[in-house]
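Study this one:
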Amino acid sequence: MNTLLEFLKNRNWMLWALILGVATGLIFGERVAFLQPLGAGFVKLMQITIFPYIVVSLIVGLGKFNPDQVRSILLKAATVMVCLWGVGLFAIWCFTFTLPQHDAGTFFSPALIAPANNIDFAQQYIPANPFASLAEGNVPAIVIFCIALGMALIANKRKNTVLEFLDVIGQGLTVISKKVISIFPIGIFAMTASTAGTLSIEQLNNLQVYWVLVLCLGLYLMLVLLPMLVAALTPIKYRALILVMRNAWITAFSTGNVFIVLPVITEGIKEHMRSIKKADEQADHIAEVLVPIAYTFPSLGKLTTLIFVMFAGWLTGNPISLTDIPNVTLSAMLSYFANVHLAIPFMLDSLKIPADSYQLYLSMSVLTAKVVSPTTVVYIFAFVFLSIFYCRKQLHLKRLRSVYYLTLFSALLPAFMLASFTLNSYLAKNSQAADEVIANMVIADKVPAHVLGYVPKAYQSGELSLTNIDVIKKRNLLRIGYLIDNVPFSYFNQKNELVGFDISLAHRLASDLNVNVEFIPFKKHQLNEYLNKGFFDVAMSGLEINVADLTKVRFSDQVLQLQLALLAKDHQLDRFTTLKDIAKQPLTIAHVEYAPILHQVARGYPNVAFKQLPNLKAYFGDPDKYDALVISAEAGFAWSMFYPEFGVVVPQGEVSKYPTGFAVAKRNYDLLNYLNAWLDIQHANGQIDANYRYWILGQGSQKTVKRWSLIDEYAPELLD
């Protein structure tokens, strides 16, 4: 009991709020989602003092030094930062090699064809308008401006008046921060409860390998490497360091935001230096200056997101090799000086990893922030403490405690790596493979259907070529022509059911006509003949609307606009990065459709020979005969889920898109007019968009399970 009372007396309200929030979320589940706005409000409350704090602390902290002190401190701080980067990056690279075996493959995303983000370092770091930088929250530019102004004041003999004024403001900001911190456990509880209550199992399952990887790496950096390095090299004890970081760590974990705890970190460092009787004016100044600088420069917390780039390469079948490490490291250190959301797309692009992988990062950013932010907090504490004692020339290794901690964190690295590899191997083995996901997709709303594998002789007389809506309703049957194995538009799933984007629309069309539906197969070169002879009423299978067929059949209005791309073996994708690369090499490229487009392309690329195939299966049956396959990016990604050794690339240069639609016999104007009006309705009511999200983007392709909670599991009657 005494221990409990002592614990309460120490005011560990942050920890209590965290524990209570997690428990509340697990007990009540989605019912506590209403607390999320309350937590967001507390985050904004914490941000009130941040920008003024950065300005005041940097200007005052630097302004009070003399020129020699500043040069010495910044040089030694830079040395500490570089050393921490080196040690941290080594650990990060070690964890990237714990990824298990995996069958790559993912759905298409529109982000694939989005232009790559160019990182504007000048805009990020040069404060052309400091007031605009403050208004826009551009922290790097603000820090550069404050450093410049603070250093300019160092030699100014009249600086004391300004510095004293700013110092008083800084003290006021500190008081505000402490008042907000005293009530912030309420916000911690609200955010933790809403997150724990609404985080779905589906979110965890989608990227569980990445989550485990980040978690193991983060725990190693937060609890082992960084604190033990400080304990080994400085007079600060491991347990004392954990305690002084506690409040800032918990706040960063709950909010996923490091920026709002910078004042807490600074005050924590100052108070701890006083508690161990090592405080002086120089130590306080160093803390005030280095905390915002450490936040601005790439931290080990921010660099842990480099793990996602490695994960994305592994997931999409483009794993990073040992020979890539030097170039990747250099690119990472340069790009991570900017915002993470600019750096990651840049890294994906530089490593030839499909750009749509960035969408996966966004979907997991809420979760990973729970690791990245507290890791950054620990890094800032470690960096500042090491810099303070380095400036005092009090770093040393000649102690038994130093040897103990250095040996311990070295030995624990392979242990954490083994834990990551073991757990991820288990998860990868038990997770649903990409081909199983797409092979298990089904049509939600069906009408009675009959799927044929041939054209019945009764349909071959040609008497039905003048089909119209009245005839279809009278016979109570809509006959749809489909292409076999045209993923994701028409294909057979694992239950041998005919499914796909167009097949789903065919069922809806038959439902609106209140008739049954029958599916009849055809090959691309048979389209004109089969339609005009009346073998079926409508052809629907992601058909390209092209100039060559316009005089032979009637096309409906556009259903989708697709992006032309190339599909090839993963290790050959870099041959097709740009149109200039394609023009430099002799190539044999297969295709099923796109003859009119490719005929024009061939004129500009005499080195490329295009070979037409009867169907897409023919390419996968003997892919070594060809360098690549022309296909839509949307279909190419779907095929890569069945054949993970293949990948998709959209060559940079002139971007080619083409429309798809339905086709009817040349004389069937009545049916064509109905289809066009029907398509207008489907576009307007969102049905086309819903089909696109499901069949092309894969959204909702895995069943959503209701969020589990203790009260639903064991006492649902309490809330009935």
Summary: The longest helix spans residues 159-198. The radius of gyration is 31 Å.
